[in-house]
Structure formats: structure tokens, C-alpha cells
Give the backbone structure.
Amino acid sequence: MAGIQAMATSLKMVKTQDEAADLVIAHITSIGEQSSEAEEIDVTTLDSPNRSKEFIQGAKDSGSIEVAVNNCFDGQVAALRSVYQSGAVRQWVETYPDDAGTLTYSGYISALKFGEATTDGLVTANFTIRLTGEPVYAEA
């Protein structure tokens, strides 16, 4: 297969013990990229070969993921706002279409934005998930 179509990708916030069900995020228009980057640690010494700097890999930062939704005032944004206010780290699962796989990560909502209202636009919302720890990709 040459690629996987993004349509039908889903995102859910996994329920906690106090909640009855996972929150499947509805009306998604985009899920941003997930990008990991490692810090570098300078291990250069006065006798480094060829007077060249030397480095080793440091701590990894899994970044943030921005999600855009059409806001339908169906309680979803209120639930996300509650999670944002709490600062709780939650588990999130992106599921790709046609059983292509999943991306699972932990993170808290670091930003919650309501979109611009225009004369011929939609009411939208955006939220940012700040990842903590390492995401796990699993092929189906």
C-alpha cells in the first residue's frame, strides 16, 4: 500500500476510574503532528579528536499535539475545559483508519482556544496536548 488516507482517524481521551466512558473527540478537522526531539549533552574535552566538539543524546521531549474541532456545543468543549482546568495528565489514543495502527500517549491540555467568529465561518475550538513521557506507536 502506498499510503493511508487520514479520513476516519479518531482521537479519544481514555476514561479515568471516575468516568463512565472514554471521551471520543468529535468533529475533528485536524490532528497536528507529533514530533520528538532529544537534547544534546556536550562531552567535548581538551583532547577531543581533531579539536572537534563531541555530543551524546540527552533527554527526549515528545512535544505537543494541536487538535482542531468544529465546536457544536455538545458538551465536548466543556469536558475538555474541565480537564484543562484540572491540569490532569490523561492518556490519549489516536487510531488510524483501516486498522493501520494506533499512537498512544500521555499528556495534559496546555492550551484551549476558541476560534475566530466570522460572518461566513464556523465556530471552532483548538486544544493543545502537551505530551509527557514517550508516545507508543503500534501497528495493527
Q: What stands out?
A: The beta strands are 10-13, 23-24, 28-31, 37-42, 55-61, 64-70, 90-96, 101-114, 124-139.
